[in-house]
Amino acid sequence: MPTHGLPGLEDKVYVLVTGANSGLGYSTCCRLADEFLASSQNNHRSLTVIFTTRSTKKGNDTLRSLQNHLRTSTSDPSAAARVTFVPENVDLCNLLSVRALSRRLNKTFPKLDAIVLNAGIGGWTGLDWPSAVWNVCTDIIHATTWPSYKVASTGLITENQTSNLAEKEPRLGTVFCANVFGHYMLTHNVMPLLHRSGSPNGPGRVIWLSSTEATIRVFDIEDIQGLRSRAPYESSKCLTDLLSLTSDLPGTAPWVKSFYSPDFDSGSENNQPTSSTPPNTYLGHPGICATAIIPLPTILIYSMVAAFWLARMLGSPWHTLSTYLGAISPVWLALSPQSELDAAEAPYRERGGGRVKWGSSASRLGVGSSASTEVDGWGYGGVVGSAVLAEDRARRRKRGAVDLTAEEKERFEGLGRECWRQMEELRILWDDLLDEEEERSGVKE
User: Fold this and answer.
1) Residue 275, SS3?
2) Which cellular components does GO assign to this protein (predicted)?
């Protein structure tokens, strides 16, 4: 498949990763480089990984760390020369910052083959320690995979996005903006680059990262931002699931088409033609790995890792422990040939299903793989009834999980339609406000 209008770029791959200064985002960048160079099909190709942090200093520090990783992970300088890391800054809770990044990307790069939407915040203020200790001691796998003892603040909102139009601004939830809406705006803004993807892997890819903790039970369509929720993180990840898994359904098509339209005024003079083939949307999660998303004292970090390891030894498929193993799923979704991803989804689609939530999984010995994940209201890949694949049937389930019914699937699809409608209306509202703010301030990169 040719790269549309871009001769000479067929063997160049461009991937954007958000939130890469540490943890999963950093490991995703490392793993992208490692797996790209390990594949023989990439012997004559190059990879550019654009990664975002929240400051220039963090970006430069991360760049040095990634370059050091590259030097130590390969003994072939010519191979290492085929991978380039490029730092960028963005604050996803600042929509003008998102716009500024979008314009820089559209001006600087000829295309994007994949965008890995990793950055985010938990919004937790601590743990309910008595509940945490009891649940981990009595039910370690369930308690460390689907915890119910995290404590979060309710109603956190971002600072004003504009200086001239503050009185017009609707409220914008902090966790919602950091985890979903900032990414949503960024992705729409770089659609021109995603539409120019083609060779070597197929249409551009939008890869949302979710969590095992996403559950429809805490999601309220009347409170899509989770401002009234006591579990805003879990609500935001459920919204991520709903948007991703219903993105190719006929019922969501009007709003998805609007979202996929490359209509953002990037200020770029790059008038290369774009493809009529829209990007593909995929959904992944890192399993359960040790990160700093919940700040803990050092002794408790070691205790957490020990609990995760014990859960894996007892049969949990999702305790990857390390962020490098946690990066398996997003890297697989970003770099695999389109035919491989289509083949992985085929058993579900052949039985009336659709998109799959792909998680990073690990065996007791730490051998990692990408595995389909059961989703409340969507089951395994949207297939009604019991899991269709033997490996799905053999995987440990969340306690209380039941096989998907036609009624539950219909409700999930209905929620997906409403989510897409509300998200597009919110995006258009904010685009109009930001256009007016930039016009009044006279500032436009």
Assistant:
1) coil
2) endoplasmic reticulum membrane; lipid droplet; mitochondrial outer membrane
Widest Cα–Cα separation across the chain: 61
Has residue 5 been placed in a domain?
Answer: no
Q: Identify whether 25 is part of a domain.
A: yes
Residue 172's CB is within 10 A of a number of other CB atoms, namely 20
Q: Which of 19, 24, 17, 16 is nearest to 286 (CA)?
A: 24
**Beta-carbon count within 10 A of 148 CB:** 13
Helices and strands in the chain: count of H runs, count of E runs? 17, 10
The residue range of the domain holding 429 is 12-441
Peptide bond into 200 cis (omega under 30): yes
Contact between 25 and 88 under an 8 Å Cβ cutoff? The reply is no
Query: Among 48, 43, 44, which residue's Cα sits nearest to residue 32?
Result: 48
Label the pairing between strands 114-117 and 205-209.
Answer: parallel
360 beta partners: 370
Domain count, the chain: 1
Residue 426: which CATH number? 3.40.50.720
Annotated catalytic residues are 210, 233, 237
Burial class (CB within 10 angstroms; exposed 0-12, middle 13-18, buried 19+) of 72:
exposed
Residues in the chain: 445
Q: Is the pTM of this model over 0.70?
A: yes
Q: Are 112 and 15 in contact (CB under 8 A)?
A: yes
Using CB atoms within 10 Å of the CB of residue 90, give its burial: 0 to 12 exposed, 13 to 18 middle, 19+ buried.
buried
pLDDT (tens place) for every residue of the chain, 445 residues total? 344 445 568 889 999 999 999 899 999 999 999 999 998 888 889 999 999 999 999 999 999 999 999 999 887 888 889 999 999 999 999 999 999 999 999 999 999 999 999 999 999 988 898 999 999 999 999 999 999 999 999 999 999 999 988 889 999 999 999 999 999 999 999 999 999 998 677 899 999 999 999 999 999 999 999 999 999 999 999 999 999 999 999 999 999 999 999 887 766 666 565 666 789 999 999 999 987 666 677 777 788 889 999 999 999 999 999 999 999 999 999 999 999 999 999 999 999 999 999 999 999 999 999 999 999 999 999 999 999 999 999 999 998 899 999 999 999 999 999 999 999 999 999 999 999 999 988 765 4
Enter the DSSP assignment of 317: S
Residue 249's Cβ-side half-sphere holds a number of Cα atoms within 13 Å equal to: 24
Nearest to 210 by CA among 188, 179, 249, 174: 179
Rounded to an integer, what distance in angstroms lies between the CA atom of residue 180 and that of residue 18?
Answer: 12
In a domain, 2, yes or no: no
- Strand-by-strand arrangement of the 368-372 sheet: 83-89, 46-53, 12-17, 114-117, 205-209, 280-285, 357-362, 368-372
Residue listed under structure tokens 């098509």: 253
